Amino acid sequence: MRVTVAILAVVALAIVGRFVADDVVDAADIPRGVVVDGIPLGNTDRDTAAARLGALQADDEVTLTFADQSRTRTLAEWGVALDVDATLDQAASMRGGGLVRFLRWSAAVVRDRTVDPIWTVDRELLAAQFESDDLGIVFETSTIELVDGSFEPVERQTVPLVDVDALADALLLAVGDPAYAEIAVPSRGEDEILGDSALAAAANALTDTELTVVLAGQFSTHAFDSATLRQWLDVTGANSTGDFRFDPDPVHASLAAAFPEIGDPDAPGVQFALGFDGQPWILGGLPEAECCATDTAQRLFEHLLIGPDQPIVIFPVEPEDAQGLNWAHELGVTEVVGEFTTFYTPNQTRNINIARIAELTRGVIIEPGTTFSVNDFVGRRTRENGFVSAGVISNGVFSSSVGGGISQYATTLFNAAFFAGLDFGEYQSHSIYLDRYPYGREATVSFPAPDLQIRNTTPHAILLWPTTNDDSITVRMYGTPYVVGEQTGQTSRAEGSACTRVTTERTRTWLEDGRTETDTVTARYRPEGISCSGASTQPTTTTTTTSTTVPTSVP
427: number of CA atoms within 13 Å, CB side? Predict the structure, then answer.
């Protein structure tokens, strides 16, 4: 018996000692075992507990109905929020005092102490939503209305006034209770609304004009008359201030009807053209689009205010991954960043091939971090693809093949990229020097090799724009100025008994910080029909009037 009593005494002393250590000596702001809406707060200080309560949000949706209107928002948007201080005060009070304190602590060892969160309503925020459109909620009645195409003062009328306090109480009941998913806004009486002749005159004067809209990427325009502009004008809430705006819904409906090519699967994809100002114009790009951007109505209204005598351009909305108008405009291909021209004799067959490959690659976009390969993009040069037979260099001798002459395109592209400060992947010079090209700074192509690869290591896109005329080809590269290249040196040395290796130095200057860096390109030339070892390759079967003499000095 005495042993049992002793054991019980030891256990009791242990429990009391644990209580003293836990709830008295090391007492936290929030006592052991307190849980608020499933969030454990026990044995924490007030700041830690407040941070944990930050996860509690009144995110249930509630629909408020008022007169003939309704709006659905979350309780948080209506102004309901957790009263953190009151909730923590309630949690701290669970400690109790005297014997109650000890008994509550003992119970918390085996089970949680649940505290309900305490919610509050920001009544100013709630009331403001019936007086403004901060959240897209407009419950006012306007003092003017549209009648037969023009605005007139409304007749005398009465409107109910919102009882904000009663509504706040109802919203608190809705927290966690689906029975309050829809609440009729209580009224505290009525107010009298009188028509405003001055406001009607202001609305009519503002819209007594025509607004011309241009669809980005298209040549189509549409002029919206005053009757349409008045249908767009939202006069709700403009009781005395004249704070008008365009309602997005009728605006988007009118634009979609005026420009049916938006979203038309047969509409052309994005493409580029040079405008009369010599700069790239972006066209098309509408198959996957829809009308319209969220700020379109606001932009149209602001344009109306500053003067609608000039057209305004609008953009459709495109999927995020679409390479359409927005993508094209963000490329920043607005200025020439590299350019080169080479010349040829008019009326030669090879000129057909040069013009054809220029046409095929006109409008190519080299995005940042990507490589443009002539062979991968154009493919094998065939008659079916518009190429004809013309002169080529094969095994060190002149012959003919379908697609002959396009190496002049390759050399021109190579030089445009050289001066644009771009990098090169695979490239190879002609085996025989032709004096229509820059000595040591040129390239040739054949299929499947050699290829010409241009690497865009800049953070901006590059637009290729090759053009031809009777006696020349010009390749322009459009982009955002970032780096420029210039030739700053050239050396040559013998290679084998018959070849010459030419090394051309380029200095690139980065425009942002002025830093410079040098690199080189190389070319190797040999006499016609002779290998670098001096041995004969094949007998020359064709002749050319182009000089193949290697210069004795750097041109």
Answer: 28
Query: Does residue 302 share a domain with residue 261?
Result: yes
Which residues of the chain carry a pLDDT beneath 70?
Answer: 1-29, 32, 67, 94-112, 131-141, 156-160, 190-195, 237-242, 391, 393-400, 538-555
Domain around 164:
125-196
Span between the terminal Cα atoms of the chain, in Å = 118
Beta bridge partners of 187: 162
Domain C-terminal end among 330, 362, 379: 330
Q: What is the CB-side half-sphere exposure of residue 235 using CA atoms within 13 A? A: 27
**Single-letter amino acid, residue 132:** S
Domain annotation covers residue 36: no
CB 75 within 8 A of CB 175: yes
The whole-number pLDDT of residue 196 equals 79
Query: CA 73, CA 124: separation in Å to the nearest integer?
Result: 17
Q: Per-residue DSSP letters for 344-386?
A: --TT-THHHHHHHHHHHHTT-EE-TT-EEEHHHHH-S--GGGT
Provide the domain count of the chain: 3
Largest CA distance in the chain: 128
DSSP 8-state assignment for residue 317: B
CB neighbour list of residue 380: distance below 8 Å, 6 or more residues apart: 447, 448
Q: Around Cβ 81, how many Cβ atoms within 10 Å?
A: 15
Distance CA 101, CA 92 (A): 12
Tens digit of pLDDT for each residue in 158-197? Answer: 666 788 888 889 888 888 888 888 988 887 776 666 667 8
Positive/negative CA dihedral, 435, 437, 438, 442: negative
Distance CA 8, CA 145 (A): 86
pLDDT at 84: 85
Give residue 465's pLDDT: 96
User: Distance from CA of residue 68 to its chain's centroid?
Assistant: 39
Q: Compute the residue count for the chain.
A: 555
Task: Give the model confidence (pLDDT) of 266-302 as tens digits.
Answer: 888 888 888 877 888 888 888 888 888 889 999 999 9
Contact 471, 280 (CB under 8 A): no
Q: Is there a single domain that holds both residue 384 and residue 294? A: no
pLDDT in tens, 203-235: 999 999 999 999 988 888 999 999 999 999 988
Locus of tokens 């094209």: 328
> How far is it, in rounded angstroms, from Cα 333 to Cα 365?
9
Name residue, tokens 């009308």. 291
Whether residues 351 and 372 fall in one domain = yes
Same domain, 387 and 484: yes
Cα separation, 236 vs 283, in Å, equals 38
**354 and 310 in one domain?**
no
Other beta carbons within 10 angstroms of residue 545's beta carbon come to: 5
What is the C-alpha separation between 212 and 259, in angstroms, rounded? Answer: 13
Q: Give the three-state DSSP class for 396.
A: coil
Residue the block writes with tokens 């109480």: 169
Three-class secondary structure of residue 285 per DSSP: coil
The C-alpha angle with vertex 14 and arms to 12 and 20, in degrees rounded to 5, equals 105
